[in-house]
Input
Amino acid sequence: MAGENLLNAAGIAKQGSDTIFSWWARYQDAKAAGKPAVNGTIGALLEDDGNLAINKVVDAAVRAAPEVEISAYAPLAGLPAFLDLSKTLAFGDARAGLEELGFNFASTASPGGSGALYLAANNFLDRGQNTLLRDRHWGPYKGFLQNNGLDFVTWPLLPPNGNELHPYFANDEFENRLKELCSTQDKVMVWLNDPAHNPTGLSMTAEGRSACLNSFANSAINNENVGHTLLIDSAYSLYADEPHAWAETILDEIENGLLWPENLLICVAISLSKSHTIYGLRTGALVSLHPEKEVTDRLNTVLSVTGRQTWSASPRVAQYCVSEMHSTEEGGQAWGKERDRLKQLLDNRRESLLNECQKLGVDLNPTMDGFFAWIESDDPVSVAEKCAENDVYLVPLNGGVRIGLCALSSGDMPKVAEALKFAMS
Output
């Protein structure tokens, strides 16, 4: 193998291109060849005319940045105003209630939501241990974990036998996996992308969130020598009907008597890429919640040192501009109005696709919020190839095909539904 005597074992194991970007390239090639191709591949929000959707309020704030805020380093942990804002972006109105109850927050800026995931992978498990994921998840999770010497096990996205109380959370399977991990590891970590799950668009119900949180807390209580970290990946949550659903569930459960042991930590990975349409400025944060200030102070130190040793400091300009924009009621409302417009684009596309698929008898997975929809398949590559024969480009992933509502236009939905009908026949 070329370069084998230069690369270490981890480097040699890396091969191939990212599935999402390779299918995006196929769409671009088809379009360049003059075909009437439609793009359901990329995970960026596009306007109906195919141009990148940009929150104009954020764009104006970035363009007005002083020179020094563009060129200077940020502090290693992040700008203080941004770190304060990140806690509100993660927990919304529930933040004040949690603080009143004596809970403490830590926050470290990161290069996008991916950087936040890296911070967690690098610090909350030991090499050789497993992270717990749902069996339908964003593919790059695997790379972030493997690059930190970790692996993963899964539990089902949906209850295999259904559940009337919480139809979108497989509680029994979740508890069984937790029990297995606690019997073999001194730390466990769950990554849960909700609401507006990538790749399905699924959002858990309040009952499902409550069941999940209580199962996790009970596991921590029953395994006092095992550290428990629940990480909520909120990359798309600000386009959900309940953008701070997890924060509200956490506050409600605590007020209803949830016991919070010392070995329980909750983190939220936030990404400004989607919520503020500044993908290329690589800005996010890992926000952590714990009742003991000594713990959150320690996390602030550990995570900022990790950033320093990995990427030095996160980019400054978006931290400054977004913090300034949200520092006034006027700025926050202007951002929110534009965000609402972009959310409506997604809602319209999802409703249109669901209607068109229903007409043709195409069974999509439950999908409620965010950038994507999903169809289950035992042979997703074949389904995607057949869709491509009909000039519809989607992304085959483990267990099914991701439909990028964010990239498609509202007028594309009949064609997408017809391609799926052909592919699944």
Remarks:
- Residues 329-360 form the longest helix (32 residues).
